[in-house]
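Priority: low. Protein: Alpha 1,4-glycosyltransferase domain-containing protein. Input follows.
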Amino acid sequence: MTTTKIFVSPVVIPAKSPVAFMILFALLMFLMLTDSIVSNISLESAAFTQKQDSQSLQTLTVTRNIKSDVVLPLSLTVSTKNNIVDGDSEHQNSLASSLGVREKRGIGKFRRKLPEHEILKSDELTKKFHGRVLEFFNRGCELHFFMTWISKVGSFGRREIMAAESVFKAHPNGCLMILSRTMDSVQGYRILKPLLDRGFKVIAVAPDFPFLVKNTPAEAWLDDMKSGKKDPGVIPLAQNLSNLMRLVVLYKYGGVYLDTDFIVMRSFKGLKNTIGAQSIDVVSKNWTRLNNAVLVFDMKHPLVLKFIEEFALTFDGNKWGHNGPYMVSRVVRRVEGRPGYNFTILPPMALYPVDWIKIGGLFKMPKDRAGSRWIESKVQQLKRQTYGVHLWNKQSSKLVVEEGSVMERLMAQNCVLCTHIYSS
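Result:
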């Protein structure tokens, strides 16, 4: 309550003047009434402010309660016993970060519109895609290889160059096409020039994504994504576009698809309509999961069409691997043994000889004589039994290739430029 102090100047009044006495009495009453009104106004103002604060607090509390009830799907099976995540742990941080941003910004499960992405754009360069593919592969190619690169051109580094080198070490007359808008540039040409100077057939081509999905089940999927009928999800869009692009390019042209973190160690000429198992059951020896990092298929193969259909019908952008390794595993499990499908499943040792959890061991130098013997044994085993080694780049990209390690031996044996072997 506000206290109003009243200051009265001394007034000389004749003691016996009735008029003066009445004037003084009226003045005192007026001042007392003014003080009461001011006090009441202050009380009402304070009460109103307190009521507003209370309402604001209630609104804030309700908002927080609603926000805490939003559940964003995260499909990762965690084994607390062994502290192992089912699905490559390399993807957890980026996925958790995406989920956190969506929650922080108040984004729910559904984004209304597919974000604009470079790879989806059509222009004069992408319109030449089909013609460039036919022209490039009409050069007496021993085998047709495809890779995809949706990252920045500056990120195509020594590890990726090593993968390209290994293709030509095993297939000197092979042709390698890198589907990439960023690499189809002056800077990309400079990166590939050392291989071109040695006569190898390699090119980066900006893909025409709408053309690639045309007349496939993925065409309707892309339309639904663009119109907002489907949610792109929290997984980086580039990852799922890469999963799809490898399928549609193989379906339309046929050939070999390789991830850019795969070192080829042997010719693929003997492989036909092949997919590799990543893991098997130790008792039954049956495969438990396949992987799509390496795919070898003829043009318009029915299994590849099934992969595209499954991608389009069951797409989920919130689960890592759902549209990639898990997707090909689902389809093969359904069609395996059915007539009309002719394909081969290779054991893990053929394409995925080292699990992502253990890949770091290939980069370490031997610490003693026993370590040296293990490295020699491992190198010889890989030379005999594998077509190549998947490096699980997210797990190993920051590792340095130490001198005397298995990886140093593999790179030295399968390179054609053979520079920067000890760099990560």
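Confidence is low (pLDDT under 50) at residues 1-16, 36-112. The radius of gyration is 35 Å.
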